[in-house]
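If you are new to this repository, start here. Below is one unmodified record pulled from the training split, so you can see the exact layout before writing a loader.
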Amino acid sequence: MVLEIFALSILRAGPVHGYELKRRVQRPSLVALSNNSLYPMLRRFETEGLVTRSTEEQESKPARNVYAITDAGRERLRSLLWTLPAELASSEEEFLVRVSFFPEIPETNRHAIMAAREAVLLASRAQVSSLLHEIEPGPRTEWRARVMQHVLDTVDNESRWIASLAEHSDNTTKELAR
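And here is the target side for that same chain:
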């Protein structure tokens, strides 16, 4: 979903050709967008009526396709941004991309997105804690225990960060209501 969100959000700003779209997609994971991901996605968007494609002639170069978002594409973008399905909540990138769009997302939806991620973190914490308690202390398990403790620390840190996001969201909403 992350690629769809980024592509549609870029197209929302105005029509672009595929190469420019590829160049402008900046992902939190820093994984480069490949043509094998981009162009099939654009064809699917076109088939679903989310974008239109036109051909732009270029002097001394082959014509290039220019893509523009439709009203259906804007609606798809909104629905992708405003929700974080449980099956995607375990993906840090899926969560972070939605957080980056929080100014556009209603407070109720923001809280649901944060709650979905927090549920994943709580389940992860419970599982890792259980495994950590089962480890017999000793030189053969020391590094495994260190890794598990690191995972717990990381989960706890993200949980604190999410709590600060929720507080900030609530404060922002209160300020806007004044």
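Two things worth knowing about this chain: Residues 82 and 141 are 43 Å apart (CA to CA). Strands lie at 16-17, 51-58, 61-69.
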